[in-house]
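Dig into this one:

. . .
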Amino acid sequence: MTHNVFNDLGFDPAEASSLKLRAELMLAIKKYIKTNKLTQAQAAKIMGVDQPRINKLLAGHIELFTIDKLVVMLARAKIHVTLSIAA
């Protein structure tokens, strides 16, 4: 068992790493929305996307979001994203 559920599910290592990172970013967005008690429309306006996009994120459609787009959405919400690389 690894520290990456996507590895454990049988995804190849490169895809598993991407999925894990995207999942963590999506969780940060969900937490921001919940903590600030935002509607989907409010969150969409802050993050520069439309409301259906927020709906898809909250529904967990990970395949629809790139790492880049998620980082931009967080930045627009004034959330600083850092990256740590482990060997």
Observations:
- Residues 5-76 form a domain with the 434 Repressor (Amino-terminal Domain) fold (CATH 1.10.260.40).
- The chain has a mean pLDDT of 92.
- Helices lie at 5-8, 13-35, 40-47, 51-58, 67-76.
- The longest helix spans residues 13-35.
